[in-house]
Sequence to fold (1059 residues):
Amino acid sequence: MVRKDTKAMNWEPVIGLEVHIELKTKSKMFCRCSADYFGAEPNSHTCPICLGLPGALPKPNVESIKFVQKLGLALNCRIQLSSKFDRKNYFYPDLPKGFQISQYDKPFSINGHIEIKGQENLKRIRITRVHLEEDTGKLTHATINGRRVTLIDFNRSGVPLVEIVSEPEMSSSDEIKDYAQKLQQIVRYLGISDADMEKGSMRIEPNISLRRVGEKALPPYKIELKNINSFKFAQAAVEYEIERQAKILKSAKTPQQETRGWNEIKKQTVSQRSKELAHDYRYFPEPDLVPLSFKPQESIKLKSEMPELPHQKFKRLTLTYELSQYDAQILTRDIKVAEFFEEAVKIAKDHGLSPKEVANKIINKNINVKNTLPAQLIKILLESKKTEEIDDNKLTAIINSVLRENPKAVSDFTKGKETAIMFLAGQTLKRLKVKADPRLVIEKIKNILASSRKRKIES
Amino acid sequence: MSKVKSHKSPIRQAQGDPESIEGSKVKIDIDYVTKLANLNLTEKEKKTFEPQLEEILGYISKLSEVNTDKVEPIGHITGQENVTREDEAKPSLNQDEALTNAPKIYNGFFEVEAIFEENSPE
Amino acid sequence: MTGKLRMKNVDITNLTIKEASKLIASKQIKVKELVNLHLGRVKKLNGKLNAFITICEDQARHQAEKVDILIAQGQKLGPLAGIPFAVKDLFSTKGIKTTAGSKVLENYVPVYDATVISRLKNANAIIVGKTNLDAWGHGASGENSDFGPTHNPYNLKRVPGGSSSGSATAVASGSCLAATSTDTGGSTRQPASFCNLVGLKPTYGRVSRYGVIAMASSLDTMGHMTKTVYDNALILNITAGKDEFDSTASDGIVDNYAEHIDKGVKNIKIGLPKEYFDGLEPKIKAAILKALKILEKLGAKIVEVSLPHTEYGVAVYYIVQPAEVSSNLARYDGIRFGFGREMFGAEAKRRIILGTFTLSSGYYDAYYLKAMKVRRLIRDDFINVFEKVDVLICPVSPTLPFKIGEKNTNPLDMYLADIFTVNANLAGIPSLALPCGFIDDLPVGIQIIGPDFSEKLLYQVGYAYEQETKWYERTPKL
Fold:
């Protein structure tokens, strides 16, 4: 379905997503250099293997394989019992060996899905494959003494990188954002990556094309978007592309198949290196590595070791603590918040506080779980509760005296002049020494007036 | 994924049955292949290599005599599986060692001539 | 020991590791003296033979002094302690230039040692130099080196074989007692046979490949050359075994290859694969049949067998090998080390293009995949035949050492020089080449091929034959 607000009327976006996420292992994918390179001196985390020196050979890190399989399971994929690594051959100065060790026809996991928010209901986006590869070095473009040069740091070279490829089943920028955020959330729940877009540990590459509404076949071209480092830019880039491609298609032309990047200053996508040759990767089985096989029991064992996933936690919180879907959604967005909540609930129980009260406090007060202890939260909650109780009696007394002293405003309100209540509330708040929520005060005044009217009618 | 043939075929003449390429038919598109291999060949080299490579491919085509319909391609020659290592970090080379053989370095980085993205906006 | 027993004027051209090791252990010669004798010969002959690209004079003397100190301290050292070695210039040596025989790496100095080199160093072997080779291991004559051809010590107008040309010439000329080599399609066995040496191509994965500049990763094996079978076994004792840096290295138990080497060949069944003898040059055929007669006399049983897919070996090899070469040589981009890709010689360029082509879109199935299927058939041939026989014996090279310049105009001609050697690489099985005589004063070799990890048996068979013939005693006149 095409979104009504898309300017590309008659044309329907077809969007798939390739997401790369760096795995948080101690060592790199094929060597023992530390994978924790962020902020380190350039080329201080390298060795013959990740520098691609002559004669060096790879040895795979078992932890990264486990991480990818866990991710596969979390994404409802099938874990392949037989797998292997392949060489993907291409030249670029950030690729030290002239090939990247990746996976071609036997990725660790295939055929999964993620559920995202559709226009009305949940929409299932199928995941084609989840495979493991090695990251490249990092290029910086600079001018030294008037010369334009490119500088290379291989600290990132060889860091394990998981690639998650979706089917082209998304149709709006909102959907890709939701998909990417869901994926980020799952990865963080699994504890396998920080998946930080700004730091580059999560990179999203939408591929996008348009077809006429109602058509089933995939369009005969595809634009890949690269070098996007926030969800916001991803959305903006996709929206820009939808319009750009629609314009071309309306003039009865076909957009040229290419890779484009996002220029944040110009707010537009720009053509990048031509991919004419880049698709002929000459994959072949990596002869320096032997194949991998897994027994069905290993997959079962891995399943039993899986942590609770976001949707499972959401379901459990709503059922166990009788939370609203809205509250549970907010609390489970970040696993740290969810864990904080459950800790706090345990303590709250001893003090006769309900989970709902704890949830409200965390959500309304926007508690920073990083610098607050659950016990601290409960303390604050108990104190605020105490003052509120006193205030309630006091509040009723003040309201009653305000009502008595302002009969005109009271009668205006009962006649239907809604603004009169604002005056009464203002008077009440003025007399209250502590700060109170005006909405609560208004509510209270309305209740008192209603019950007194009721009494009058009854009497 | 859209299935798009994004490059011209490296062959000039008919491909025929992929399992039985006849040597006489095979012509290497040497310009395409050298570009793919990141090599720069002189015209003279191309003229020398083309017939040599075609002669070799002609020789190789004798494999079409072998019926391999029911043969699985050989896997890894060792027959080994699941050779991995534990996730333990060890000290790396220091920066000087890493850079020691590089023809051009700058402030701890390897340096190359600027890489311009084709059709780059700059 | 007293000075009287000291043998300063040892004839090193006839010396073996076994003998040298005894001289060192009995303090009849100091390591430094032994090394100096060899360094002297290296320097004297290198102008004539061009076996070495780099001579490690200072490092070798320094190492020799260290080993002499260990000996003086009374430390018990192994049989390779103090033994002068040459190292093929594909093996990374920390702090010593490693060129692969190519101008691309003319100034490349590795920051690490190959596993084989660390093991030899731990065994206190002394590296006297890095040897010449066909650039990147591409060749069967030594002529394809960017540092000039190496000459055969038995006939300076002829090639020593390749690609381990310098290693073969170095050992045969008495410039060292052993040399490391590699064997991807015959690069150890063919030069060994051209230079009257014993050369081992071990089972794939028996010896770590880590740190050795890769040619074709699924075929590369790390071998070595010596004058005698016993010496050869001593070295495998050190180089074999699992390696945490090589995922394809076998973790299987390492035999003591020198122990029981004199077990003999009684009741050993030797297969004679008929495909290797059809149309073979009559003089070479005669030499091999004569060798078989000797083994038969020693108690072995000779059986004719068939390896029906033999003739497809070179075709499979010239698909798999260039494909892997094209990928393995991609890292030479002149950014982190060495010079740029324009410095590749013609043969490397040819193989890169061939391999890139056969892997390119639309051709993978017809070439690489097809080759991997026929490769299975070739390996199956050997598996089947080893149910009937213990080892196979066949020629190493279809020709005698040829003249420098004779073959290097036509690449296919040169590729066909590998015809008897490539199948062992495709099958991953071990093969030992050893001298079986001379024709027109040029050495001829045979190879003994066995099933996976049968190196010990190959040594036993080779030793039995060698003890009867002692061809190694015939040294070149230089």
User: Anything to note?
Assistant: Strands of chain B lie at 105-106, 109-113. Chain B has a mean pLDDT of 81. The CA atoms of residues 23 and 59 of chain B lie 7 Å apart. The helical segments of chain B are 30-36, 43-60, 95-99.
